[in-house]
Here is the input.
Amino acid sequence: KQEVTQIPAALSVPEGENLVLNCSFTDSAIYNLQWFRQDPGKGLTSLLLIQSSQREQTSGRLNASLDKSSGRSTLYIAASQPGDSATYLCAVSSGGYQKVTFGTGTKLQVIP
Amino acid sequence: SQTIHQWPATLVQPVGSPLSLECTVEGTSNPNLYWYRQAAGRGLQLLFYSVGIGQISSEVPQNLSASRPQDRQFILSSKKLLLSDSGFYLCAWDREANYGYTFGSGTRLTVV
Here is the structure.
């Protein structure tokens, strides 16, 4: 059974810092890994999708990497801004495309 | 482009009342459709998924049911709500393996 862990559960940083969010998974036989952002009371917004054959994806200030062999993914946020404050979730697709396992998220607060 | 609509945004219902939440997807055909629940302070729990009209798979036995009367319409229902049904309900879709999830904006259900 796939298990997805995100550490830390919460993170507070001053504006302008570069930061890394971590996601680890137990079964390396994955189809893809997706990073989401969730603002309070809102749905999940997809940030980046990394296919199993890829090592990283970039979008603006965001860069996500994937290391299947070690069961890890990182989301790098450059030059953090208060608007980046949200909960970030990673989701791993494995065991068939209907089987997506979510982490419990990292709640990020960027302090002005 | 594809869009996903979910309504209502918020709902307050008394215990024992029925429930109907609707989700529709535009701009694609034959999507895979999902219902998730996010309880306060907890992760995302997959409730139902559907790979086609009339095809519903349940992940968790509970007080809820789902139906897919049309290709791009997914409905979550209950005949009698329980207090424990309170939570944030999210609809999502994907098209095929390795496509990634897109979520709706969610419905906040409070059972009183």
Notes: Chain A touches chain B through 23 residues (CB under 8 Å). The two ends of chain A are 41 Å apart (CA to CA). Residues 63 and 73 of chain A are 10 Å apart (CA to CA). Chain A has a mean pLDDT of 93.
